[in-house]
Amino acid sequence: MNEPVTSLIPLPRAVSGSAGSFRLETTTSLSADPGAEAVSGWLRAALGPATGYPLPPGEGGIRMRLDPGLPPEGYLLDVTPAGVHIAGGSAAGVFYGAQTLRQLLPPAALRRAAISAGPWEIPAQRVTDEPRFAWRGVLLDVARHFMPVSDVLRFIDLAAFHKLNVLHLHLTDDQGWRIEVPGLPRLTEIGSWRSTSMLGSRGHERYDGRPHGGYYTTTDLREIVAFAAARHITVVPEVDMPGHMQAAIAAYPELGNGFAGPVRSAWGISEHVLNVGPEALDFCRAVLDHVCGVFPGELVGIGGDECPTTEWRDSPSARERIRAEGLAGPHELQPWFTARLAEHLAIRGRRLFGWDEILAGGAPPGAVVAAWRGREPTTHAVRAGHQVVACPDIAVYLDYRQSDDPGEPTPVGTRLALADVFAFDPVPDGLSESEAALVLGGQANVWTEHLESARRVDYQAFPRLCAFAETVWGPPGRDFAGFSARLPAHLARLDALGVGYRPLTGPRPWDARPDAPGHPRDLAGRLAELHEMTAGLRRVAT
After folding, report:
1. What are the residue boundaries of the Beta-hexosaminidase bacterial type N-terminal domain, all occurrences included (predicted)?
2. What is the sign, positive or negative, of the torsion defined by CA atoms of 451, 452, 455, 458?
């Protein structure tokens, strides 16, 4: 009897070995029952370039089917010398079984061209698996540094390989607007580029002197959505409102509160926010209408984070809005504004998705909260009756530094080693069973202020994203020693996929960014800061 392969990531629930192995041959066929045909086509395209095998339709070889008795995203993978059988509770389950099959093949099978004649053998075994959480997400920030469509598609492929199923696409910010919107041409003519970019943490006041820009056409976005859907990933778009809008205001100054200037080139938070007049609301509704027409998912992100009220305190239109709506002051404008966006999305059959700042003043009914300011907001969100996606910066912000090594490129934030990410659990201690059920899952966030290319994204994301994938797929009890033992075999797969991950031994000389210095933080200091930032949530709770 063979020992079951134990190098899979994320680790399946149950793996048992049996005698022999299955050999992929030039004559191997691939068949799929109704409902699994799209997955069989994807697998054929994935394996063909490296193996040179066409995997034509036919009985025997590899067979895929739906099994309604399995969990929706669960699968059964049965490998015997006679063939491979993949059953899934849905097409998504079949797809995850097919991804496990790819991991069981030699790493050369993951290449994009044939470098080996095989043999392509899979040890006989039976794998039974299903995810713990329905939301296994990763955020990609394409606003701070634009990523071409090809890089986004590659990132989606890598996320899918790790059985993640949500891509939160951060499309706009103070430093760049990345989507075209019909009737608003200046958003891309002006808002999609900046004259220079900050080098390193903002405290150093260094700039590179190079223009940076780019945007996605509607056709580009539809391609991203379709590519992701074929890999059972839902793309959740985010257009930040009413803060983080300096790029839009640079394009259309009438949307702001008197600011007439360029797209922001510094990192950090701009005080230049949308006004709360009818024109700004109409602008937001037009943007959301377009976004809803491109992205078919139920949730639409409106950000809602880090919105200073400085300009509203001095704005005649803000004072008029406060008076007309009977609000207590500028601090109540954002909840009022967010509620109007939620109402508009509801007309389109969508729900609002926002950062945990939307809890202040009461998040709209049905809103889903992305809890990022430490672990406390997850608890506050579920106790207010909201579904929540846990993504605390101190656990899953993959732009944060990975060690204290001075060679880490642009070291910012608290130290998040591989073990720290692996230890993350989306469900905080102390929740009741009904409260825990409101935690949809977890999300790792890849912010790109300091990640100017796909190469730098690779370095920051991997292998920490591998550890994260296991935390949101597997059961609560996990073994980091076991994960560490499995990881080297998985890194060989990342090598075959062309991923420029951070070596386990630490940064190499060429990984350093001495021209872009960082600003490391200690955990105790950051926790104290987060406690202060979320004080308003505790006051509401009491």
Report:
1. 6-129
2. positive
321-371 pLDDT per residue, tens: 999 999 999 999 999 999 999 999 999 999 999 999 999 999 999 999 999
Three-state DSSP state, 247: helix
**Gyration radius from the chain CA atoms:** 24
The phi-psi region of residue 60 (left if phi > 0; otherwise alpha if psi is between -120 and 50; otherwise beta) is: left
Distances in whole angstroms, Cα of residue 206 to Cα of each of 199, 202, 209: 5, 8, 9
Bridging pattern class, strands 75-80 and 61-66: unpaired
CA 35 centroid distance within chain: 27
Whole-angstrom distance, CA of residue 533 vs CA of residue 540 = 13
**Please, are residues 172 and 193 in contact by the beta-carbon 8 Å criterion?**
no
Beta bridge partners of 371: 390
Q: What is the mean pLDDT of residues 12-21?
A: 91
| Predicted confidence band of residue 59 (pLDDT cuts 50, 70, 90) | confident
Rounded CA separation 453/256 (Å): 31
User: Which residues, in sequence order, are CB contacts of 479 under 8 Å at separation 6+?
Assistant: none
CB 327 within 8 Å of CB 275: no
Q: To the nearest 10°, the Cα dihedral for 138, 143, 144, 149? A: 70
The answer for residues whose C-beta is within 8 angstroms of residue 323's C-beta and 6 or more apart is: none
Q: Are 457 and 451 in contact (CB under 8 A)?
A: yes
Question: Residue 17 — very low, low, confident or very high, per pLDDT cuts 50/70/90?
Answer: confident
Per-residue confidence at 6, pLDDT binned at 50, 70, 90? confident
Q: Give the residue numbers annotated as catalytic, written as ranges.
A: 173, 244, 306
Is residue 173 helix, strand or coil? strand
**Averaged pLDDT of the chain:** 96
Exposed/middle/buried for 430, CB within 10 Å: 0-12, 13-18, 19+? exposed
Q: How far apart are CA 351 and CA 353, in angstroms?
A: 7
pLDDT value at residue 119: 87
Contact 441, 462 (CB under 8 A): no
What the block records as the tokens of 187 is: 């958003």
- Contact status, residue 295 vs residue 235, Cβ threshold 8 Å: yes
Whether residue 415 contacts residue 523, with contact meaning beta carbons closer than 8 Å, is answered with yes
Which residue(s) pair with 141 in the sheet? Answer: 170
- What six digits make up the tokens of 424? 């993350």
Quote the crossing angle between the two packed helices 464-473 and 454-461, to the nearest 10°. Answer: 50
Amino acid found at 459: Y
Q: Three-state DSSP class for 213?
A: strand
Q: Listing from the earlier edge strand, what are the strands of the sheet with 30-32?
A: 14-24, 120-129, 75-80, 83-88, 61-66, 30-32
Closest by CA to 491, choosing from 509, 475, 504, is 504
Task: Report the SS3 class of residue 422.
Answer: helix
Taking residue 459's Cβ as centre, other Cβ atoms within 10 Å add up to 22
Quote the percentage of the chain above a pLDDT of 70: 99
d(CA 529, CA 522): 11
C-alpha distances in angstroms, 164 versus 131, 455, 535? 10, 20, 33
